[in-house]
Amino acid sequence: MNQPAPSSTSVALAEEAVAPPVRLVARTRRLDVADAADLLALLPEDAPVAWIRNGEGLVGWGVAARVTASGASRFADADTWWNTVVAAAQVNDEVAQPGTGLVAFGTFGFSDAHTGDSSLVVPRVVVGRRGEHAWVTTVAVAGEAPADLTDDDADVWRTEVSATRAPHGLTFSDGSLDGETWMGVVADAVRRIDAGDLDKVVLARDLLARADDDVDVRWPLRRLATQYPTCWTFHVDGMFGATPEMLLRRERGLVTSRILAGTIRRTGDEARDLALAGQLAHSSKDLEEHEYAVRSVADALGPHCSSMNVPESPFVLHLPNVMHLATDVNGVVSDAAAASSLKLAEALHPSAAVGGTPTPTATALIAEIEGMDRARYAAPVGWIDAAGDGEWGIALRSGHVSGNQVRLFAGCGIVSGSEPASELAESQAKFVPVRDSLATD
Ligand SMILES: C=C(O[C@H]1C=CC=C(C(=O)O)[C@@H]1O)C(=O)O
């Protein structure tokens, strides 16, 4: 078994202006589908990346190149870097599907003011599966010995995988605000809405989990992918979760977005949950909350599409912990060369599913009263390929792992009729996926 070469190219954008562009050599070859049957099982503990839904998707490891960015230009800077990397790369792709060839995984900060890193990472090895296609892409930096590209041994890309470690001695504590204080913040937001300052704002809270040792992120990833197969289970650079919300997928000139807003908790009793789903579908408070989110996405996508389909009413999406009002919007991208999936993500972020309406007033209110730094919560996370196609989810039902700590996030859309106590209960239900994914039973 070969370990990918340890060297890589990593730049922050200020440095990148003076550094010559990294020249990557990538090769994608077909794999037996059986070799990619369990993508998560291929991941080593060190710096894995993952994007999985219903067992399909992409996993990767190692770092061939990486860029970090921050501030208001973080998306544009990362997109420019990616275009430079793609232009300089030598790619041999025998599968030619979205997600084959050169691929970068990204995670972005929520706020323009956030000083922490947004990053795009090109792994050394990416393994993908989609329907009857399975593939492996190996990436070397030009000038390095390209042993992994020319070797005929079909298994040369495999890396050594240690047993996944369960987190032990886990304790949870309040994050930035305790529940009582957070309800006060929600009540404040409702007052501002009723005073006519804005229509909707999404307010979030965090929880801290501590384990005895460094958390092996493969543990929660496995549990999330099993428990929430219809969500997108992800990990990039410490940010992980299972999001039900697809900010956008761009594929061969088509763009789709799954918009969620409006939530009801499940009880576990099927008949009762069906009745609750009916209640959700007719709740004027939730329909209003949802409509703001759909409008924000349709308005942001419109300028990039020659045609668009926006359904008139939402459907109810059933997840194991909650149900959501959901709308799938589709469009034809008018200028695919100018609108990479990352550019579209920038245009759509933050939608009113995570920001509010109007957006500038809502984001200002979040900064003023939420009382925490969202870091990369509720921002785009996903991947982009050399054609600019890609999938960018919203980092919800998520946590950030750093050493032995995990910071969990959950937020709720607040409109005029919102009640602080039920929003607190909703936030608790939204913590469940990541909280349970860290459990050992
Ligand atoms: C902001 C979150 O959820 C959003 C997505 C679906 C439903 C939502 C809601 O009903 O409030 C939120 O807009 C979160 O999970 O942290």
Give the SSE layout.
Elements: E1 9-12, H1 13-16, E2 24-30, E3 49-53, E4 56-61, E5 65-69, H2 74-88, E6 90-93, E7 103-107, E8 118-122, E9 125-130, E10 133-141, H3 147-150, E11 171-174, H4 179-194, E12 200-210, H5 218-227, E13 232-236, E14 239-243, E15 246-251, E16 254-265, H6 270-282, H7 284-301, E17 305-309, E18 315-318, E19 322-333, H8 341-348, E20 356-357, H9 359-369, E21 380-385, E22 390-394, E23 398-402, E24 405-414, H10 420-437
Parallel strand pairs: 1-5, 2-6
Antiparallel strand pairs: 2-10, 3-4, 3-13, 4-9, 5-8, 7-8, 7-21, 9-10, 11-12, 12-20, 12-24, 13-14, 14-23, 15-16, 15-22, 16-19, 17-19, 18-19, 21-22, 23-24
InterPro entries: ADC_synthase (IPR005801), Chorismate_C (IPR015890), IsoChor_synthase (IPR004561)
Family: Belongs to the isochorismate synthase family.
Catalytic activity: chorismate = isochorismate
The CATH topology name of the largest domain reads Anthranilate synthase
Sheet/helix structural class: alpha+beta
Q: State Rg.
A: 21 Å
- Name the CATH architecture of the largest domain: 4-Layer Sandwich
> What would CATH call the homologous superfamily of the largest domain?
Anthranilate synthase
CATH class of the largest domain: Alpha Beta
Q: Quickly count the domains.
A: 2
Low-confidence stretches: 1-7
On the 0-100 scale, what is the average pLDDT? Answer: 93
